[in-house]
Amino acid sequence: MTKSIMIVGVGGQGTLLASRLLGNALLAQGLDVKISEVHGMSQRGGSVVTYVKYGESVDSPIIEEGEADIILSFEQLEAARWLPFLKTTGKMIVNTQCIDPMPVITGAATYPTGIIDSLVAAGANVVAVDALSLALEAGNPKAVNVALIGVMAKATDIPESVWLDTIRATVPEKFLDLNLKAFALGYNQ
Predict the structure, then answer these.
(1) Which residues lie below 8 Å from residue 161, measured CB to CB, with a gap of 6+?
(2) Residue 170 burial (CB count, 10 A)
(3) Arithmetic mean of pLDDT over the chain
(4) Which of 50, 124, 139, 188 has the fewest beta carbons under 10 Å from its own?
């Protein structure tokens, strides 16, 4: 049986490091892992999504609507955009941070309010977390990605020690302590 995780956000949020950590942790468990990253206008703050499928044998990384066991969303509007992909029994972990898309920045649109409430009203099992505050507590706002990985890690059956070893093997030495702290803060939410 395969499982599916989607990591969604906007360019510059560190979704690619998050997907690398997830993929490496799954591989360390001896699982077959397929990853597909889609970069919209990621360099301009556009939508970024990573599909991760894993299990004993995986043919394709593509996740269809209603298939994701977990959606890890780095931003509220992206959570709303990808909600149709969540299984009815799935879990959505959402960073409460709002990042204005280009139409909001230019004044052509306003950022919607009440997104988390709307996700819950739609029946989603939502874990809302202020990952930016966790990252700041860890020492750097750019650690949002690893704080969110920490929150998500608790929802997987991968042992904490495997995640810690994966972070040590993946993150450059000069950022290691910061990322270990961000992971711990997320994991212990």
Answers:
(1) none
(2) 16
(3) 92
(4) 188
Q: Which domains can be identified in the chain, with CATH numbers? A: 3-187 (3.40.920.10)
Say which residue the tokens 């930016």 belong to: 132
76: its two tokens: 């509220």
pTM value?
0.93
3-state SS assignment for residue 22:
helix
Which tokens in the block code for residue 90? 């799935």
Residue whose tokens read 């066991």: 69
**Tens of pLDDT, residues 2-19:** 999 999 988 778 788 899
Tokens of 127: 């874990």
What CA dihedral angle connects 49, 13, 185 and 77, to 10 degrees? -60
CA angle 73, 115, 40 (to 5 degrees): 45
Query: How far is the C-alpha of 108 from the C-alpha of 24, rounded, in Å?
Result: 41
Burial of 26 (0-12, 13-18, 19+ CB in 10 A): buried
CB 146 within 8 A of CB 74: no
Cα 42 versus chain centre, distance: 15
